């Protein structure tokens, strides 16, 4: 096998003295930046993870005297075999003495720097210390096989060559075992002496740095393979699963072969006439994907690969969104950082060129991430929302909607970001809940601004001394725009003021006191100040009462001239303090108190959203919303999960017109033109008013329309195009059909529109999904898709929303390849976050990923994401879940290695559909596989991908690996030809079908392993991704429910015996097991599965009895907790010392009783019910139940031990 072995070097720490065994060929490495040249420099950047098992326990014990570090100590490098170069590297015999200890040295010409691996800063004190790998090397010097100077690990060592007799071999082995303990003792003493001599002057290592992950080897695929060529699978499988080896080379081959194109479908023998199409929700081109995008990709790709394997003609369209506000903000910060130039200092064309340059430089990063994740997209149909074809579709949509009377221009209230100086959509508004007074930073101000304060002040009643009307507000600066005060008509407190007028203390304006039934009497003072130019509720009230609109806040967030000279040009929040001071001076301030409120913030800039009155373009939504609602209610559009239909109805019934103007430069410039008539007497009035606007696909078309409307020659008109651009959500709403070529009647549009499915996050149900439905139905006459599957939002392990400012936004590539904490924090420092947010985010990363993120691989990430219930309330993603999925990958890897070894050379498989099981175990495993296939098909149809993943995981882990593979080992050792052939056919069928079931979730691993299975005939598919997905109908002859029911009895016995083995710590012993079952039918089942039962329970002998007759059971037997119809006994004769075991159980019993007593006292506490969460209460009850169960188990074990003879001769446990 040609594969490069790379070593991951963690923070050094001592391996446990009781298990200092090298599993990989390590080379000495002492805190420097050089390694022997024979080692590949493509090292993993992943930091060390905490060691498991005895290693972690040893590390904890050694914290009091931490292992010292070494700056750079030269060492002797013995000849070492390198798998990558096929050469041996030899060092010199020169040694140097440091503090009285001989240390081998390394010649300089055998070292080279490794630029790709960042090294931690170790102890750089004046005293040189020996690092853990050096100590391992010294220890291993006496443990190597072969001639002097040849250094190998146990896993790669070969025994000495020569014609040694069996007698000599046995004598050498016996001598080695005899002196093993003495050798280990001498080595420990030697290392302790070295440490003691070097410990003086060293500083204690902080615990957080002393802990590290175990050394992990990464095998790299290094067989020369050009991009697009098929991966070479002729070499043996590496010893363990390595994601980088598995995921190399496959994707480019898939793309080149055209497996992801719908045109490839005609080559499939199992092709179907149906099509399946969907579009990937276009991610913003602004940066890189995060785990929320990764969830979408994992779910959609699993569905796409499943449909493709079923034989559908599949099209999955990739694309990216231009993200107007986000992209412009990023580029503005970039040119300011690099050139010190503001956007306004550039011409529009110059700035747009800067954006396009940035897009060309950074825009492909997202597509690279998608390819690394294995997304089976048709890259020939990739779409960008600013491409010329898509831009044409956007213009066409705007013009058609305007011609249909659904797009209009009007002066209305909009969400305004003063920092961006643009209107923004509802989805870009982050509503922050404030419980009371809260100080927040605001862009453009030095200090913090208090919010969540309800201020009360009074308006004096005109002509009535001493009479006043108090009002309350959280925005006192807007009182300069008040035009009235409203009260409820039935409020007795203010009935005498109906029809009166109030005096404005600063403007002199007289404000009428109005009555309106929408006023809430319990809110504040019950009297509401009306500021229609800065409040949606006041705007509607003003329209009902024909009130004027006075804008007091400008686009840049400063106060306007209508406020007076004393406030004009002042920042609105500085004006707030000035207004409060003026009210106090005039004796009108009536107090302030904390007040819960919702504060709208701009998600792009962090600025507080202002509601401003602006001339903008709007889309009438009422009629289109009604059509979208009817589509769901009639069943033509299905929402999954179904509970979203209620929210869909609520939103569409209460939708308002949609502002689609954005005051940006990057985006689709609105195809609307303001018409001016030069030389006209009312030209001044035209410039002051909004004027006449026309819409056209081109300026020439618009000029023609204007001439027809005004009855003037086209050459006499001056047209000025609207400088604003369209809301990004407007263009995104066209994606399902614009990406297929609309408005042109392309072949793709006719074949793949409407799409079969839309899969996206539930947070986009209204802002994107509803708008796609409305625009698609209005512009094409058809719904853009017939089904919508919505997944929940991905949160971090603590349930928090992912946010860059919290430091919990994770790049999928960091999970796939691993990332040290240092690299994660460097990314934050190089981001566009505010320095204060960077500090908070770095602290969060330090807390959540103290050792960085481990390498998990693409398949593990995809499988972990799909394993969550995506249609629930939320997904709290923990990286530990991805690590668990990676271990599952290793389990599958080892299972296939075992299977391939069992199949051997020259095995000719038959199609699974033609395999008929002969033995009970074969019937059981194939019946379990049949039901797994059936369950996967049903769950896939319901888009329950987490259930599909769970079903496949259960089969691989429990049915195939834990039971069937273990049960066939005696058969494989027996050499019985008839049984071997049937077993091998079953093994191959299980591996083939189970890999195809797993393929939609783990495309790389399944391809790597499936390609190595023996081929079934010459017509075998070229890739697993176009192989037929298993069908329950074709495997119906595997269904044996009786065998599954019978094996459940066997599994109960196995679990009971294994539980008892664990209780008495019988690690290797194989005791005699007695099954006493009076029922003949069940006893017959045990007899049928006798061989498997004995193998799985690790029994030396299995005896079946119809009843306990006389003295058939030895006194040394103990009873296992079985089921009511079968008594299970295990003979412990010679395996345990009853007296010692009783002492152990007594100690354990006392400990558990203390825990139970403490927990019981806590649960019965006075304030337990009020203070403890329901989840914690459930955890406590479960723990109490487990403690009772274990105590009962201990009591039974003690009772059994007391019945045994006092002293027994202990039998030695058999060797491994």
Count every helix, treating DSSP H or I runs of 4 or more residues as helices.
Answer: 37
Shape: globular
Largest sheet: 7 strands, mixed
Helical/strand content category: alpha+beta
Global Rg: 38 Å
Which spans of ≥5 residues are poorly predicted at pLDDT below 50?
Answer: 1-178, 193-215
What is the arithmetic mean of pLDDT?
A: 81
State which percent range the strand residues make up: 5-15%
β-strand number: 41
Helicity, as a percent range: 25-40%
Alpha-carbon distance between the termini? 28 Å
Structural summary, described in words:
The protein is globular, with a radius of gyration of 38 Å. With 1216 residues, it is of the alpha+beta class. The strands form 15 sheets. Strands 18, 19, 20, 21, 22, 23 and 24 form a seven-stranded mixed sheet that branches. It is found in: Mitochondrion.
Helix and strand layout, with pairings?
Blueprint: E1 3-7, E2 34-36, H1 54-61, E3 80-81, E4 88-89, E5 95-98, E6 101-104, E7 111-113, H2 132-140, H3 166-178, H4 180-198, H5 207-210, E8 217-221, H6 243-246, H7 250-257, E9 275-279, H8 291-310, E10 313-317, E11 319-320, H9 324-339, H10 348-362, H11 364-372, E12 383-384, H12 388-403, E13 407-417, E14 422-423, E15 429-434, E16 438-441, E17 448-451, E18 453-461, E19 468-473, E20 484-487, E21 501-503, E22 510-515, E23 527-530, H13 536-545, H14 572-585, E24 589-594, E25 597-602, E26 610-619, H15 622-633, E27 638-640, H16 644-653, E28 658-659, E29 661-662, E30 672-676, H17 683-688, E31 692-695, H18 699-710, E32 718-721, E33 725-726, H19 728-732, H20 735-738, H21 747-752, E34 758-761, H22 765-780, E35 787-791, E36 794-795, H23 812-817, H24 821-829, H25 835-848, H26 858-867, E37 875-876, H27 879-903, H28 920-941, H29 945-974, H30 977-998, H31 1003-1010, H32 1041-1063, E38 1072-1076, H33 1080-1088, H34 1090-1096, E39 1101-1105, E40 1117-1123, E41 1126-1131, H35 1138-1163, H36 1168-1171, H37 1174-1202
Parallel strand pairs: 9-10, 11-12, 20-22, 27-35, 34-35, 36-37, 38-39
Antiparallel strand pairs: 1-8, 2-7, 3-4, 5-6, 13-14, 13-26, 15-25, 16-17, 18-19, 18-21, 18-24, 20-23, 21-22, 26-28, 29-33, 30-31, 30-32, 38-41, 40-41
């Amino acid at each position: 096998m040609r594969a490069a072995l790379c070593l991951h070097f963690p923070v050094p720490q001592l391996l446990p003295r009781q298990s200092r065994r090298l599993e990989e060929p390590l080379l000495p490495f002492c805190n420097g930046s050089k390694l022997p040249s024979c080692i590949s420099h493509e090292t993993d950047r992943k930091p060390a993870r905490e060691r498991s098992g005895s290693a972690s326990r040893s590390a904890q014990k050694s914290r009091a005297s931490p292992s010292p570090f070494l700056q750079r100590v030269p060492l002797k490098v013995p000849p070492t075999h390198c798998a990558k170069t096929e050469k041996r590297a030899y060092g010199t015999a020169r040694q140097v003495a440091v503090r009285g200890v001989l240390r081998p040295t390394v010649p300089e010409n055998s070292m080279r720097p490794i630029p790709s691996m960042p090294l931690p800063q170790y102890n750089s004190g004046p005293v040189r210390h020996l690092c853990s790998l050096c100590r391992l090397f010294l220890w291993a010097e006496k443990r190597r096989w072969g001639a002097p100077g040849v250094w190998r690990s146990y896993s790669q060592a070969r025994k000495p060559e020569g014609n040694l007799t069996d007698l000599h071999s046995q004598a050498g082995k016996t001598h080695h075992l005899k002196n093993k303990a003495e050798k280990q003792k001498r080595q420990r003493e030697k290392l302790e002496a070295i440490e003691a001599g070097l410990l003086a002057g060293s500083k204690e290592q902080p615990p957080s740095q002393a802990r590290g992950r175990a050394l992990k080897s990464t095998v790299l695929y290094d067989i020369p393979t050009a991009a697009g060529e098929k991966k070479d699978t002729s070499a043996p499988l590496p010893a363990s699963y390595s994601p980088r080896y598995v995921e190399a080379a496959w994707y480019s081959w898939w793309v080149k072969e055209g497996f992801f194109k719908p045109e490839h479908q005609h080559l499939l023998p199992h092709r179907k006439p149906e099509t399946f199409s969907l579009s990937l929700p276009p991610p913003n081109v602004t940066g890189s994907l995060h785990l929320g995008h990764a969830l979408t990709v994992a779910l959609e790709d699993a569905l796409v690969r499943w449909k493709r394997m079923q034989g559908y003609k599949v099209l999955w369209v990739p694309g990216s969104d231009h993200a107007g506000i986000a992209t412009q903000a990023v580029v503005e910060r970039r040119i300011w950082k690099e050139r010190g130039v503001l956007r306004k200092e550039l011409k529009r064309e110059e700035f747009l060129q800067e954006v396009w340059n940035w897009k060309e430089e950074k825009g492909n990063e997202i597509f690279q991430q998608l390819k690394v994740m294995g997304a089976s997209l048709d890259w020939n149909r990739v779409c960008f929302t600013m491409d010329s074809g898509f831009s044409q579709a956007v213009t066409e949509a705007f013009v058609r909607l305007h011609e249909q009377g659904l797009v209009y221009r009007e002066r209305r209230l909009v969400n305004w970001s003063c920092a961006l100086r643009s209107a923004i959509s509802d989805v870009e508004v982050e509503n922050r809940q404030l419980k009371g007074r809260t100080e927040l930073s605001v862009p453009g101000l030095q200090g913090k601004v208090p919010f969540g304060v309800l201020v009360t002040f009074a308006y004096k009643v005109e002509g009535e001394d001493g009479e006043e009307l108090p009002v309350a507000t959280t925005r006192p600066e807007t009182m300069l725009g008040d035009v009235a005060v409203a009260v409820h008509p039935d409020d007795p407190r203010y009935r005498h003021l109906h029809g009166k007028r109030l005096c404005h203390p600063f403007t002199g304006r007289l404000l009428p006191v109005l009555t309106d039934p929408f006023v809430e009497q319990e809110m504040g003072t019950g009297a509401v100040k009306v500021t229609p130019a800065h409040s949606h509720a006041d705007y509607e009230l003003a329209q009902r009462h024909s009130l004027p609109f006075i804008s007091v806040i400008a686009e840049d967030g400063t106060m306007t001239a209508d406020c007076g000279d004393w406030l004009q040009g002042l920042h609105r929040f500085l004006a707030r303090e000035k207004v409060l001071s003026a009210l106090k001076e005039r004796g009108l301030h009536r107090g302030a108190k904390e007040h819960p409120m919702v504060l709208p913030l701009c998600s792009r800039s962090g600025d507080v959203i202002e509601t401003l009155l602006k001339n903008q373009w709007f889309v009438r939504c009422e009629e289109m919303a009604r059509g979208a609602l009817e589509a769901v209610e009639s069943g033509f559009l299905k929402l999954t999960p179904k509970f979203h239909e209620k929210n869909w109805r609520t939103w569409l019934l209460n939708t308002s017109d949609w502002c689609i103007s954005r005051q940006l430069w990057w985006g689709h410039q609105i195809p609307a033109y303001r018409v001016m008539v030069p030389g006209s007497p009312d030209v001044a009035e035209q410039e002051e008013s909004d004027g006449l606007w026309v819409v056209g696909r081109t300026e020439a078309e618009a000029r023609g329309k204007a001439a027809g409307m005004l009855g003037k020659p086209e050459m006499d008109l001056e047209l000025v195009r609207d400088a604003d651009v369209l809301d990004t959500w407007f263009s995104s709403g066209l994606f399902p059909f614009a990406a297929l070529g609309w408005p042109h009647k392309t072949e793709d549009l006719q074949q793949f529109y409407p799409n079969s499915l839309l899969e996206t996050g539930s947070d986009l149900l209204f802002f994107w999904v509803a708008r796609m439905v409305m625009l698609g139905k209005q512009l094409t006459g058809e719904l853009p898709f017939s089904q919508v599957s919505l997944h929940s939002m991905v949160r971090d392990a603590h349930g928090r929303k992912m946010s860059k400012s919290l430091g919990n936004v994770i790049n999928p590539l960091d999970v796939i390849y691993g990332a040290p904490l240092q690299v994660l924090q460097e990314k934050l420092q190089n981001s566009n976050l505010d320095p204060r947010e960077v500090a908070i985010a770095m602290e969060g990363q330090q807390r959540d990923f103290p050792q960085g993120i481990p390498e998990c691989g693409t398949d593990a990430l995809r499988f972990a994401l799909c394993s969550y219930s995506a249609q629930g309330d939320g997904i709290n993603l923990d990286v530990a879940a991805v690590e668990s999925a990676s271990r599952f990958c290793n389990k599958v890897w080892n299972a296939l290695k075992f299977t391939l070894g069992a199949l051997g050379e020259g095995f000719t498989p038959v199609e699974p559909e033609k395999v008929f099981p002969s033995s009970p175990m074969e019937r059981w495993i194939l019946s379990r596989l049949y039901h797994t296939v059936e369950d996967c098909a049903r769950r896939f149809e319901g888009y329950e991908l987490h259930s599909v993943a769970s079903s496949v995981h259960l089969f691989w882990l429990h049915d195939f690996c834990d039971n069937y593979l273990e049960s066939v080992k005696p058969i494989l050792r027996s050499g019985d030809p008839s049984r071997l052939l049937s077993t091998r056919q079953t093994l191959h069928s299980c591996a083939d079908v189970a890999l195809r079931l797993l393929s939609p979730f783990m495309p790389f691993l399944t391809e790597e392993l499936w390609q190595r299975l023996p081929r079934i005939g010459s017509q075998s598919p070229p890739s697993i991704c176009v192989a037929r997905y298993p069908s329950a109908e074709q495997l119906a002859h595997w269904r044996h429910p009786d065998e599954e029911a019978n094996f459940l009895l066997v599994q109960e016995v196995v679990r009971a015996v294994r539980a008892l083995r664990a209780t008495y710590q019988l690690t290797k012993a194989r005791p005699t097991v007695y099954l006493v079952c009076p029922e003949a039918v069940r006893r017959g089942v045990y007899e049928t599965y006798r061989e498997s039962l004995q193998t799985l329970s690790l029994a030396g002998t299995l005896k079946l009895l119809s009843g306990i007759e006389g003295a058939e059971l030895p006194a040394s037997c103990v009873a296992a907790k079985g089921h009511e119809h079968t008594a299970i006994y295990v003979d412990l004769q010679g395996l345990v010392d009853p007296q010692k075991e009783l002492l152990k159980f007594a100690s354990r019993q006392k400990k558990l009783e203390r825990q139970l007593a403490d927990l019981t006292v806590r649960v019965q506490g006075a304030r337990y019910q009020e203070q403890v969460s329901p989840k914690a209460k459930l955890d406590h009850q479960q723990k109490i139940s487990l403690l009772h169960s274990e105590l009962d188990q201990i009591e039974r074990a003690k009772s059994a031990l007391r019945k045994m003879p006092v002293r027994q001769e202990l039998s030695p446990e058999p060797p491994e």
